[in-house]
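Work through this protein:
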Amino acid sequence: MAEKLRVENIVKSYPGVVAVNDVSFEVLEGEVLALLGENGAGKSTMSKMICGVEKPDSGKILLDGKAVSLNSALDARNHGVAMVHQELSMVGEMSVAENIFMNRQPINALGNIRWHKLYEDTANLLKSFRLDINPRLQVKRLPVGMQQLLEIIRATSMGCKLIILDEPTSSLADEQIQLMFDNINRLRKEGYSFIYITHKLAEVMEIADRVVVMRDGCKVGERSVKDLTVNEIITMMVGREIKQLFGEELKERTLSQDCVFEVKNLCAEPLYRNVNFGVRAGEIVGVAGLIGAGRTEMALGIVHAHKRSGSILIKGREVKISSPKDAIKHGIAYVTEDRKALGLYLDYSIKNNLLVMQLKNLSNRMGMLKRSGINELAKRQVEDFRVATPSIEQSMNNLSGGNQQKCLLAMWLGIDPEVFIIDEPTRGIDVGAKAEIYQMLKNLAEKGKAVVVISSELTELLGICDRIVVMASGTVQGEVEKENFSEKAVMNYAMRADNMEILGEAL
């Protein structure tokens, strides 16, 4: 196969750090190359240089055998290179057709848009991707996962034959992931090439031909996927063997029969209805379900982030929660799935973020902060949670995703909660940080806390939980005990509501 891309001896430095150090690799025509590494390894910087957002300090970028100088993303697209970012760039108020062909709409001699032609071209494009979507539909009315697929369609419609996919499945349900993989495999047969960046190694084993692994800005390995195991990839990425990805088995805890935390008849229609489950002290309970099942909405209802009915019980006693502040007062912590938008103060220092939940304990009777000891407490939390940073005064914006997530955990654990609810605990973070976070959650359980983990990754729930509650269409469809854990058992419940609806229509 011919080379689509070759990077030779690429170097890129920023003040105080060499982000990419003498890296070389190639991508062949029709190939899927997985670019892997922990957060901060240099993958994003390398991708930005390939798609024209950053310029290398030295080295060469060759496309179809010719050296090119890429000065912008538009310049890269003109050379047939596009990047689909994890953060969506679709304009919600515009139609599917307008988004896909933005600034490239077919026009007549007077410069007016040929709307019929625009919708027709879009319909044909969507059909080739096996998507039954009305081209006139506003994008905001589509699920996030479908919008992610449209980003890829837009890139191919531009004639780009090399597409960089950055965490493309972070918002996709399993069936959408399979649809994406089917389309990637179809496109590669047509000569498209892909650089696939992800922390989901099972996906790498399924879709990629080769892997290039980076660590600390350097390329540390390049292998064919068929010659690798997941554990070997992990070792290449982190520089050490991780024997227990999901943490050590809990030996120092005893589970009582009584629930310390219970949810009874929680309702906020149409988001969810009649949700019931309980958690014992020292137990990790997972909440599974497809995208749109109502898991996050239910968790937000527990802390009364929106109006709902139903009861919350702590140690058998009903507690009144009328706001998130009340939830904190009763020892319930909710860690959001969106750490950047809703969880952290990105423009503030690590110290300020770590201590924001403890301001009352760090203030005197006049409400003034006790300056003595604040720095020491923040430094201790950075050390305890193994946050990689040169200083507690560093801006939260400058941390990798994994270190931001550890700070978010530290922030909420500062209130010493009895109930710890965490939504998508490892979304978008590397395998090394995942292992540390799993161990943190198990340590919480060992201390007798009630832990609730909401996750779209079934392997994650099967690996760390004692029991899994499965939601579909806003209700709890069933529970799976640890001795019966399997993907099939969980998915049977997750698909139950849809299957019942289909059966009802058939009858």
In short: The longest helix spans residues 174-189.
